[in-house]
Specification:
single chain; 6 strands
Length: 98
Amino acid sequence: MESEAKKALVIDLERKTGEVKSFKDLNRFVGGVGLGLKLLEHYQDQNPIVMSVGPLNGFFPFASKTSVVLMDIGVVEDLYIGGNLSQRIRFSGIDSIV
């Protein structure tokens, strides 16, 4: 059985465009941090900010953080946002926002 591809809302602030993209090659990356780091690598030329959620976000009460991964002066930063952002991302049908 083939698993569903990870989906990311990719927003280009310069062009003022956005689209949902599917990434089958990202299925092996579990959790917001793993997915965020891989998307950061994929879009590194565009200096992205990546917000991602893990598979339990929105379903398990203690999995309520959104992972934010970005590059700051050549150093990868991994930050977390609380609140209900992770639920909104999860139930919109995407795994990440780039």
